[in-house]
Amino acid sequence: MLKELHTVLPASDLQRARGYYHDKLELDPNEELDGVLIYRPLQGSVFELYETENAGTAQNTQMGWMTDDLRSEVQRMREHGVVFEEYDVPEMKTVDGIATMPDGSMAAWFRDSEGNFLCVSQRAPEAHS
Questions:
Q1: What are phi and psi of 64, to 5 degrees?
Q2: What would the pLDDT profile of 76-123 be if each residue is shown by its tens digit?
């Protein structure tokens, strides 16, 4: 039985990545192994950063967080120096770094110090009946 979500992200410079996650996202590793930083930000979720030369090569979202107030979260993260991506493609356009989907859900993407694409999302509000 699957019990825990565990995301693995590459980092070409593990100490630079540690600094980014500490300074920008206010996260510190719970464990450190040789060439690996392990974070447990929420009960039941784990992600690790491991040192490799392949960091920054993926062109897709690699990890995401959910929030109940995306606009406030984006503002808080910007105050810590996080830079959000801007998109203007046929399927999606961001406004001030935030994309609103047809169903009302919202998302904002940013890259960490290692070039990994990370996302913060908010579910669509419940339809009122």
A1: -145, 155
A2: 999 999 999 999 998 899 999 999 999 999 999 999 999 999 999 999
The letter for the amino acid at 3 is K
User: Tokens 């491991």 appear where?
Assistant: 50
Amino acid identity, position 17: A
59, amino acid identity: Q
Query: Mind giving me the DSSP string for 27-62?
Result: ---SEEETTEEEEEEETTEEEEEEE-TTTT---SEE
d(Cα 114, Cα 71) in Å, to the nearest integer?
24
Both structure tokens of 6: 């565990």
DSSP 3-state of 128? coil
Cα separation, 109 vs 33, whole angstroms: 29
Going by pLDDT thresholds of 50, 70 and 90, the confidence category of residue 36 is very high
SS3 102: coil
- DSSP β-ladder status, 31-33 and 88-89: unpaired
Strands 117-122 and 61-66 come out as: parallel
User: Burial of 74 by CB count in 10 Å (0-12 exposed, 13-18 middle, 19+ buried)?
Assistant: buried
